[in-house]
Design a protein that fits this description.
The protein is of the alpha/beta class. It has helices at 15-21, 27-38, 53-62, 78-91, 104-111, 120-141, 182-191, 245-251, and strands at residues 42-45, 67-71, 94-98, 146-148, 165-168, 171-174. The chain is 35% helix and 10% strand. It is globular and about 50 Å long.
């Protein structure tokens, strides 16, 4: 698929009409709509997490050369780097890695180990350095108008409020598997002979930075409690930048 479609601007979309149009669409149909509508300015983001192969495979089947944005915070687990390399080769992905402008050593020399602090200021500083700025740079560098993400409505309180197509900070956000849960993802992986993140077999239900991820235990009420010690559940990348952002970070599950 090439960028030959009459590309529109995100603000031209009637979100109510689009969501009505796509209410019964399959994930593949949603992805095709996004790629047809926005061409090469439509990208996919991936954390190369536990079931990331689902979205990567779905998108690669519709648009094999789709740009995939991956953020390397500098704190990813070794297994994540190896899993990303495995999937990139397996699916012949067009991955663009973006890293913080400052090294982790540089950040820690100035601010210390920010993730050890519970206060909002420390967390927001950590997020801005390691995820926020690299993501904004990626969106700008790749000229992104539409962003496909594998969010699920059952994952967090915030995500349960989303529709298949939304507008976030001037960019169209597309959620093809919003209605899917773990069961649907599991069967998709099996049907397409796709791998899960290797840490799944060690009890991880979700994986992020090494210091903010751990296996599920019998005491966890929800698998999302394994991220950020259960205190902070949204990393912020998928939240609108408004006055409610911090409240949403704290109340929703990643």
């Amino acid at each position: 698929m090439t960028d030959t479609a009459p590309i529109i601007t995100p603000q031209d979309l009637d979100l109510d009409q689009v969501n009505e149009q796509l209410k019964d669409a399959t994930p593949q149909e949603v992805i095709k709509w996004a790629c047809d509508m926005f061409g090469d300015s439509c990208v996919l983001t991936s954390s190369f997490g536990i079931k990331s192969a689902v979205m990567l495979h779905l998108c690669s089947q519709v648009k094999p050369d789709i740009n995939v944005i991956a953020i390397d915070t500098g704190y990813l687990l070794p297994e994540t780097y190896r899993f990303a390399n495995q999937l990139t080769k397996l699916l012949d992905l067009n991955v663009h890695w973006f890293s913080p402008r400052l090294s982790t050593a540089h950040i820690e020399a100035i601010h210390g180990e920010l993730w050890k602090n519970d206060d909002d200021e420390s967390y927001n500083t950590y997020f801005d350095y390691t995820k926020g700025e690299p993501m904004q740079r990626a969106l700008k560098q790749l000229g992104v108008k539409a962003w496909i993400a594998g969010l699920g409505a059952k994952q967090t309180k915030f995500r349960s409020t989303l529709r298949t197509v939304e507008l976030q900070n001037g960019i169209v956000k597309i959620h093809p598997i919003l209605k899917w849960g773990s069961k649907e993802k599991y069967y998709y992986l099996k049907e397409n002979n796709l791998p899960e993140h290797p840490l799944h077999d060690q009890g991880y239900a979700t994986v992020g930075d090494w210091h903010s991820s751990r296996p599920v235990t019998a005491d966890d009420k929800d698998s999302r409690d394994t991220r950020f010690g259960g205190k902070r559940q949204e990393c912020g990348l998928h939240l609108p930048k408004d006055s409610n952002e911090d409240a949403s970070r704290n109340s929703s599950g990643l």
